[in-house]
Specification:
Layout lengths: L8 E3 L3 E3 L3 E5 L6 E6 L3 H18 L4 H17 L1 H12 L3 H21 L6 E2 L10 E6 L3 E4 L7 H13 L3 E4 L6 H12 L7 E3 L5 H10 L5 E5 L2 H13 L3 E5 L4 E5 L5 H13 L9 E7 L3 H13 L19 H16 L3 E4 L12 E4 L16 E7 L2 H9 L3 E2 L1 E5 L3 H10 L4 E4 L14 E2 L2 E2 L4 H4 L4 E6 L6
Parallel strand pairs: 7-8, 7-10, 8-9, 10-11, 12-13, 12-18, 13-16, 15-16, 18-19
Antiparallel strand pairs: 1-2, 3-4, 5-6, 6-22, 11-21, 14-15, 17-20
Helix pairs in contact: 1-7, 2-4, 2-5, 2-6, 3-4, 3-6, 4-5, 9-10
The protein binds succinic acid.
């Protein structure tokens, strides 16, 4: 199937023509690649009405029917994998090999929740009264409002939409303004799979605030799910209070990696490289701080610098490219500012060195890094890797935990007892032991502290879209 054009259109109960549009730019070339619908409060109010009405019939379908639809969606995503990957690369610059990997990852959530839909079990439990037979059902929470980020334009959509739809919720999505095309294509495939009208709506917006405010204030929206910055997450959390919506938040991180002297050096280097430069350093779980135990810091730095210098920066559509452009000027400014701040405070550049033309940024390695530098307490979201040495395990854990964030942390060791001890001591939602890319559709993803609330993925992800109903059933006398 050729994907239909999604230009100037958005989807509610049907495809609609936009009143206003905004351009989507290819960050690699700067060229405008599409004009996309610019939705505001009027479209949001209509979307809430449609989601509310569609919820009545969608919740009444059986889990088996929803599962079949999700499996058809999964098949169509895989059948269109190449086209979806290309769209993603064009709209946000992810290297094409990685983009194909992301579409597979996105499809994985759809398959997982097609299966999970049938496992939304309830419970019966004993009562203190002989005539009573109490039970608990799990039912869909209601229409959902989702806000997804530009760094995973497909996988963050399906990681939220698939469990919501599997649970029987309807779903209204505002995709990131930088990368709305993938989600429009995914919605079209959902319709092609037989997804009923109004179950999955996509409303792009140039300025997310008026549209989001309307949906946040609407009492028909019962659940909000957001992936993005901690700053915006806080605003949504406050707004959700007015109509007491259920909320899940996947927010910023500041991931540390601890490389112990007993680690397998080559494995540690390969995994830290994969983690640090994934999507040009633009993921919430990318390593931000690389702590290496003093006896191996020189050997690690030498091998890490050599591996960094092997990476190919360039056109993200090129199969050879490892690192594409950053997403926009704002992203480039932040990474550049972190680098300049570190250098001004005494850091040494041992590989790379900064921005290239356009939005490209060389993978850069720093040593001589101190705790006062911005990149040591703010998320850089770019390909800059600071290496810091430590002496003891206790010191490494203390430094790793010394942040308000708690999304992902990593450690490298061959000592089993240390692996358990340190994993348990790290104040993070995700810990990778000798593993730089632990994310998977079947695993719980989410943070502690100011990195968020709730979990996505696996058996945990569907819980976010369910309410428990207690039925106290008394046998007639
Ligand atoms: C993210 O950066 O928000 C998602 C990364 C992942 O799923 O691994």
């Amino acid at each position: 199937m050729a994907l239909p054009s999604v230009e100037r259109r958005f989807i509610t109960d049907a495809w609609r023509d936009a009143v206003r549009t905004f351009p989507v730019r290819n960050p690699s070339s700067g060229a405008v690649i599409a004009q996309v619908a610019d939705c505001g409060p009027e479209e949001a109010a209509e979307a809430a009405r449609i989601a509310w009405e569609a919820f009545e019939s969608w919740r009444a379908t059986t889990a088996f029917q929803r599962s079949e639809l999700l499996m058809r969606w999964y098949d169509l995503i895989l059948a269109n994998l190449a086209e979806l990957a290309r769209t993603m690369t064009l709209e946000m610059g992810k290297p094409i090999r990685e983009a194909r990997g992301e579409v597979g990852y996105a499809a994985g959530f759809v398959k997982w929740y097609a299966e999970e839909a049938k496992r939304v079990h309830g419970a019966t439990f004993p009562s203190h009264v002989g005539q009573k037979r109490p039970m608990a059902l799990r039912q869909p929470v209601g229409p959902v409002f989702a806000v997804t980020p530009w760094n995973f334009p497909s996988a963050m959509v399906t990681r939220k939409a698939a469990p919501a739809l599997a649970a029987g919720c309807t779903f209204v999505l505002k995709p990131a303004e930088q990368a709305p095309l993938s989600s429009l294509h995914l919605a079209e495939l959902w319709r092609e799979a037989g997804g009923p009208e109004g179950t999955l709506q996509v409303l792009p917006a140039r300025d997310p605030v008026p549209l989001s405010n309307a949906l946040m204030a609407d009492p028909r929206i019962r659940k909000v799910t957001f992936t993005g910055s901690t700053e915006v997450g806080r605003i949504l959390y406050r707004k959700a209070a007015d109509t007491v919506k259920k909320i899940s938040l996947e927010l910023g991180g500041h991931a540390p990696v601890l490389v112990f002297e007993d680690a397998e050096l080559n494995l540690a280097v390969d995994e830290v490289i994969a983690c640090k430069y994934r999507n040009a350093g633009q993921t919430c779980v990318c390593t931000n701080r690389i702590y290496v135990q003093a006896p191996i810091v020189e050997a690690f730095t030498e091998a890490y610098v050599a591996a960094t210098q092997e990476l190919t920066v360039g056109d993200p559509l090129d199969e050879e490219t490892d690192i594409g452009p950053l997403v926009d000027e704002q992203g480039l400014r932040k990474v550049t500012e972190h680098l300049h701040d570190a250098v001004a405070r005494g850091a040494m550049v041992v590989a790379g060195g900064g921005p290239r033309e356009g939005l490209f940024f060389e993978p850069t390695v720093l040593t001589g890094v101190t705790p006062d530098m911005k990149l040591m307490h703010e998320e850089t979201f770019g390909p800059v890797a600071p290496i810091i040495s430590f002496d003891t395990e206790e010191e490494a854990v203390r430094k790793a935990n010394d942040t308000p964030y708690g999304l992902a942390a990593y450690l490298y060791t061959n000592d089993l007892a240390r692996a358990f001890r340190v994993s348990e001591a790290l104040d993070y939602g995700i810990v990778g032991v000798n593993d730089g890319v632990p994310s998977a559709p079947y695993a719980p993803f989410g943070g502690v502290k100011q990195s968020g609330l709730g979990r996505e993925g696996g058996a945990w992800g569907i819980e976010e879209y369910l309410e428990v109903k207690y039925i106290s059933f008394q046998l007639p006398r």
